[in-house]
Every structure is written in structure tokens, then in C-alpha cells.
Design goal:
The chain is an all-alpha fold and about 325 residues long. It has two domains: about 60 residues, no CATH class; about 220 residues, UbiA prenyltransferase (Tetracycline Repressor, domain 2). Helices cover about 75% and strands about 0% of the residues. The chain has 15 helices and no strands. Helix 9 packs antiparallel against helix 10. It starts with a helix and ends with a helix. GO terms for molecular function: prenyltransferase activity. This is Homogentisate phytyltransferase. Keywords: Chloroplast, Membrane, Plastid, Transferase, Transit peptide, Transmembrane, Transmembrane helix. Belongs to the UbiA prenyltransferase family. It is a multi-pass membrane protein.
């Protein structure tokens, strides 16, 4: 009897599930499986939350360390401590805008822009016959002429720089093409765009004097600069002076006066005495411009065979001649 009882307890049973020793957790798993699974889930969730909390702490520490490093770099570079990547990018964008504006300012040759604008405004005033002519219509006509002419002016001076890159490296190394700030492709794109805009504006305005002024300026400016057979008239001092005389003295005075007289005020074309006097004065002044403008450029002109008055006569003689003309 005792032996049979011993054998029954020693033999494997359903409760022992094949294990030699009976354990309390085996009994619990067998009798209360739902309770065990819930307890296990709580343990898993507790472990997951612990790991997540540790991970969040590590991420926050890393972010704080990174921000501290940025503040140290900003302080070392002289930037305010509160400046971040956004402020740095804004500063870079602003610097790029200023650099691009400065390059275009030099490319447009501002002294020619100012001279052209003042000439057109002054000759437009010659068409005013009474005080009532100073009206919004007058200012609109002047604005149309000035903007279209300035677009064409940028084409002319830009084409001259494209044709004179090597010369400007000697005479005017600060210009964008000579200094390498602009590529030739960039220069071509700019002059092409401004010539198209100039003709487009002259066409939509509907003023034939304005359109012909732009067209003749385009032809003379191209012939003056572009290096093609029978062209590049700037190589000859006399022909170059004639180009300047034609544009500054004749076209600007006559054509823009007729633009105001016939297109804006709808009056018959009349060449008044003030207009004739202005044309004569600008003819004389254009000769002075033709002489003076090449005095600083004698070195590059000599090297590349530009026979300007300064190269042919010398800087001192041209300077004395200009003083006599302006005295």
C-alpha cells in the first residue's frame, strides 16, 4: 500500500507537466492562466515604460547638449546667443541679395543710367508749353521713355563689357565680368533680357518716336562694341565719337522730344528754339565726353589696339584739349 502510494506520487502527473519538482508558479499557470497573463502584461508594460523614460531622458540630454554647442559657436562667432539656424540662414540670404545687387549696380554703369535719365527728363520739359501740361499724362509719358531708354542703356553698356572682358581686366577690374563675378553666359542673358524688355515696352506704348529712338540706339550700340567684321567702331576714335554724338546729341534730344510732343500731348511736330539750342549744346558736350571717357583706359586700349583719342594724342594733350573746350 505504501509502495503504491509512493509510486503514484513519484510518477509524472498532469500537474507536474513533466517536471521533477512541483513549483507554485506552475500551479498558478495551470489553474489561473488569465491572472498570469495579466501579470505578465503589467511586467512588460512596466519594463517598456521604463525603457521609454530612459530613452526620452537621453534624447533630451542630447538635444540640450546640441543646443549648448550651437550657443557656444554663435558666441564665438560674434552672433547673439539667441540666434539659431533660421537667423543664420536669413543673414546668408541677405548677404547674397546685397552681393547680387552690388554686382548688377556695377554692371549697369550707374553714371550712364543717371545721365540718360536726366537727359530724357530735361528734353521732355522742353515740350511743356503751359502749366497745365504738367499733369499725370506728362509724368506717364516721361516714365515710359525713361524706363525703356534705361533698359536699352543696360543692353548697350552690358554688350560693351562682354566685348571688352580682356580690356576691362586691365582698365576696370572691378566690373563683374572682368572680375569673374559674372560669367559670359550671365552677361549675355542680362543684355538679351533688357533689350527685349526695352523693345517690348516701346512697342506696347505705341510711340513711334520712342520706338525708333530705341532701335537706332540698339544698332549704334551694337556696332560700337561687337567684335565682327566692319563693326566694333570703338576701335576708331572718330567713328566712336560720331556714335556718341548721334545718340547723346541727336537721338535723345530729337526723338524723346517728339515722343512727348506728338504721342503724349498729341501736337504736331515742331522743332522749337529751345530744342535746337539743347541739340547744339549736347553736340558740343558729346565731343567732350568722347575725349574724356578714354583717359583712364589708356593702358588697356594700347594693349588691345583701341585707337582712342587718348592713345593717339596722349593723356596730357587730351586733358589740355578738354580744358580748352570746357573753358
Amino acid at each position: 500500500m505504501e509502495s503504491s502510494l509512493v509510486r503514484s506520487f513519484a510518477s509524472p502527473s498532469v500537474l507536474s507537466t513533466g517536471r521533477k519538482n512541483w513549483r507554485g508558479d506552475d500551479f498558478t499557470k495551470f489553474c489561473f492562466p488569465a491572472q498570469v497573463s495579466q501579470s505578465r502584461e503589467r511586467d512588460i508594460l512596466r519594463a517598456y515604460n521604463t525603457r521609454s523614460h530612459v530613452t526620452n531622458i537621453k534624447e533630451k540630454l542630447a538635444l540640450t547638449r546640441r543646443r549648448n554647442n550651437e550657443w557656444i559657436v554663435n558666441a564665438a562667432s560674434g552672433q547673439p546667443l539667441e540666434s539659431g539656424p533660421g537667423a543664420y540662414n536669413s543673414g546668408r540670404i541677405w548677404d547674397s541679395v546685397k552681393t547680387a545687387a552690388d554686382a548688377f549696380y556695377r554692371f549697369s554703369r550707374p553714371h550712364t543710367v543717371i545721365g540718360t535719365a536726366l537727359s530724357i527728363i530735361s528734353v521732355s520739359l522742353l515740350a511743356v508749353q503751359k502749366l497745365s501740361d504738367i499733369s499725370p499724362l506728362f509724368f506717364t509719358g516721361v516714365l515710359e521713355a525713361v524706363v525703356a531708354a534705361l533698359f536699352m542703356n543696360i543692353y548697350i553698356v552690358g554688350l560693351n563689357q562682354i566685348s571688352d572682358i580682356d580690356i576691362d581686366k586691365v582698365n576696370k577690374p572691378y566690373l563683374p565680368l572682368a572680375s569673374g563675378e559674372y560669367t559670359v553666359g550671365t552677361g549675355v542673358m542680362i543684355v538679351t533680357s533688357f533689350s527685349i524688355m526695352s523693345f517690348w515696352l516701346g512697342w506696347i506704348v505705341g510711340s513711334w518716336p520712342l520706338f525708333w529712338a530705341l532701335f537706332i540706339s540698339f544698332l549704334l550700340g551694337t556696332a560700337y562694341s561687337i567684335n565682327l567684321p566692319m563693326l566694333r567702331w570703338k576701335r576708331s576714335a572718330v567713328v566712336a565719337a560720331m556714335c556718341i554724338l548721334a545718340v547723346r546729341a541727336v537721338i535723345v534730344q530729337m526723338a524723346f522730344f517728339l515722343h512727348m510732343q506728338t504721342h503724349v500731348f498729341k501736337r504736331p511736330p515742331v522743332f522749337s528754339r529751345p530744342l535746337i539750342f539743347a541739340t547744339a549744346f549736347m553736340s558740343f558736350f558729346s565731343v567732350v565726353i568722347a575725349l574724356f571717357k578714354d583717359i583712364p583706359d589708356i593702358d588697356g586700349d594700347k594693349i588691345f589696339g583701341i585707337r582712342s583719342f587718348t592713345v593717339r594724342l596722349g593723356q596730357e594733350r587730351v586733358g589740355i584739349l578738354d580744358l580748352h573746350n570746357t573753358a
